[in-house]
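The instructor's notes for this session suggest beginning with a concrete chain rather than abstract definitions. Hand out the sequence below and ask the class to guess, before any prediction is shown, which regions might be ordered.
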Amino acid sequence: MERITCEDLLALLDSGDVQLVEALPADAFAAEHLPGARNVPDQVSAELAGLVAPDRAAPVVVYCSGPYCNRSKIAAAAFVRLGYADVRVYTGGKKDWAQAGLAFEGSRASTPTTVSTISDAAAVAGRPS
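After discussion, reveal the predicted structure:
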């Protein structure tokens, strides 16, 4: 499982070819999350994985609060065990995203935004399409 940077994640978001997963409790996800992300608040079951990342061949990027949080690594390992071909961990997580000055979605987000597809997430994050 590969670790990626904020720049790598933004490039994937620009391409529209990524399934972005937050591995934090539901309340943390509701408060703020990266644009286009889906939530895996607990253990990753086959059923839940299929809902948040239906394409086993497309890249899955898992993140959590930051570099000292292990939830993203645990969830990513579960996706690998379930047969996902390309699983990556954004180790910087929410902390790195915020430090880069990028937008969040959710109830605490400074400018709540609705993203209809993951391919729209780059635009919401302030990246040109």
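Then share the key points. Helices lie at 6-15, 26-31, 46-52, 71-81, 93-99, 121-124. The chain has one domain: 2-108.
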